[in-house]
Amino acid sequence: MNAPFSLSRRSVLKGAAASAGAFTLGFAVPFSAAEAQAGTPEINAWVVIHPDDRIIVRIARSEMGQGTLTGLAQLVAEELEADWSKVGWEYPTPGENLKRNRVWRNFSTGGSRGIRESHQYVREGGAAARIMLVQAAANAWSVPASECRAAKSVITHIPTGRAVTYGAVAAAAAKLEPPKEVTLKDPKTWTTIGQSVNRLDTVDKLNGKQVYGADIRLPGMLNAAIRACPVFGGKIARFDAAKIMTMPGVKKVVQVNPHTVAVVAETWWQAKTALDALPIVWDNGPNANASSETIAAMLHDGLEAGQAFEGNRAGDARAAIAGAAKKIEATYSYPFQNHACMEPMNATALWTPEKCEVWCPTQNGESALAAAIEASGLPTAKCDVHKVHLGGGFGRRGRSDFVTQAVLIAKEMPGIPVKLLWSREEDMLQGTYHPITMARMVGGLDKDGNLVGLHMRISGQSILAGVNPQGLQNGRDPVVFQGLNPGGAEGPFGYGIPNLLIDHAMRNPHVPPGFWRGVNLNQNAIYVECFMDELAHAAGVDPLEFRRRLMKNSPKHLAVLEAVAKGIDWGTPSRPGTAKGLAQIMGFGSYVAAAAEVSVSNAGEIKVHRIVAATNPGHVVNPDQVAAQVEGSFVYGLSAAFHQECTVKGGRIVEENFDTYPALRMAEMPKVESILVPSGDFWGGVGEPTIAVAAPAVMNAIFAATGKRVRSLPLKNADLRRA
Predict the structure, then answer these.
(1) pLDDT digits (tens, 9 = 90+) for 285-299
(2) What pTM was estimated for this model as a whole?
(3) Cα dist. 713→285, 502, 670 in Å?
(4) Tell me, what DSSP letter sits at residue 208?
């Protein structure tokens, strides 16, 4: 983490005030007193303009390395006709959002929705600001606004050549009535969208100024370490606080809830040391005997179940398979996985009877605010949350359990800021995990090798059943079927199979599931794409050609697949000692494909030399950011594929740190070549979909290299040694 970050008491209490001169957490350059006195007009909710022409775009979505701040600011800047070199950013607060009738709308960042869900109203905000600025300049010149043009933060009166900067007319523009309707620019005229402009947060990350939750220091702040029962469903039987109260720096021992205890001390290390010494007796509850083996048995039962929720059906798959010339069957499995954010969960809370404020890295500011309100016992108007950058999110920081904990602890220390920071072990043991599933794949081929029927039975966890039961549809979890849907814009199945049945036997073990970057698209892509290769092999048909036959009515799916096939030179022999594999899927609103070049040594050691990835997100806002996201997706996806699984013994997660849950090392990372094939007719997501094609492309290449099928992850468990 960075060097300690401190705020004066005054600026802490001001928090994320708009443009009145307060320091805004996350904004690198504080407003000066002179600027505050001169006024920094807010043209609309999205744009604050300084007298020196600096433009501050207010972004509600969270930044966790994916580039959301820059991408959304580009959308605003495009319609604003702003000079990008003058653009900065700040976070509004969810409390401010509520007070202003949710003018910033959604504060949730996940599911690759930052751009695709908000592009319309964000661009409209920029367009409205431009119209108001131009009108203000026209009023000053007593000319029609139609005679004026805005470009690069300058308004010019075309007939006379007179010009004025945005900063000079901002105060007057802020007094005008906003336009009720705006017309957005034709994409053909975009000058900022579609360009690889510099990211707005890079410099502060390089020079150490960037603030993360673990960096926050407030005057008089205390620190808290926390521990919950390591077995989900267990609770505290008893603990002896008196044993540690005389240890250095210790201020208080707090039972946060029936299964969690915290120690508050002057420093975090003092709190952690005392917590380690605290005698705790756990009641491990009904799940104390659960294990990876008992959970696997539960999932195997689901594979055989007579009842299941249908996700996609066409024709009669069972009858078609029964009458097929050849039947192929395989069972795949996918493990629990941890989000393993580099920055453990944390939040800083300040509670008084009149006010509750929280500073934290969160993927959902409004959810964090709701958690703070409930835990504080105060009215909504007396609570707020100040977002900071996330040191990793991946879905884990969409939950606000750590916010609830921080506020409950702070209530025990009224008027004193308390920073709660989880240890790495607590972060690994108290997560919400990528759901564990199995899939039985059964396909039928006719005498000519055509696929006439496919039955895909998924057995395993429902995320919605765990985190949002009201989202279930008559007991069915639609999220299970990501990438497998019969239609729609989110994740339609790309293969035209005359007889198809995809269903889900819900089996929920005690380990809590959560949205993990890529969610269910990850395992669904493995199940489908690896089995497509199995079917192609059984049919004696090239895997690319086999897919082509099934994708005649899915041109966008096929286009990205063809792009990676061309990029990897699919039709030519592989380099000596290497083999190729490919995969495709559609999810999070985008079409993606990957082709991998892999070698496997006689000792069974796998080396991924090269991956070619193709993405069609409809529109590309920042090509460099998309390429970076694709590359990062493969780091995350290959880490999971090669190394990462969470096992269960005695009801608890076994893996507690990176020594047993490693990430991909630099030497293991292949060269990634990113191909962008935007069709320009929709808005898709980027941060998550390409993760899904990492593993199946590699697994298919492993088969091509060795003749051995890997049907369960991680690959570290696979025996690929040659006799």
Answers:
(1) 999 999 999 999 999
(2) 0.93
(3) 30, 22, 19
(4) T
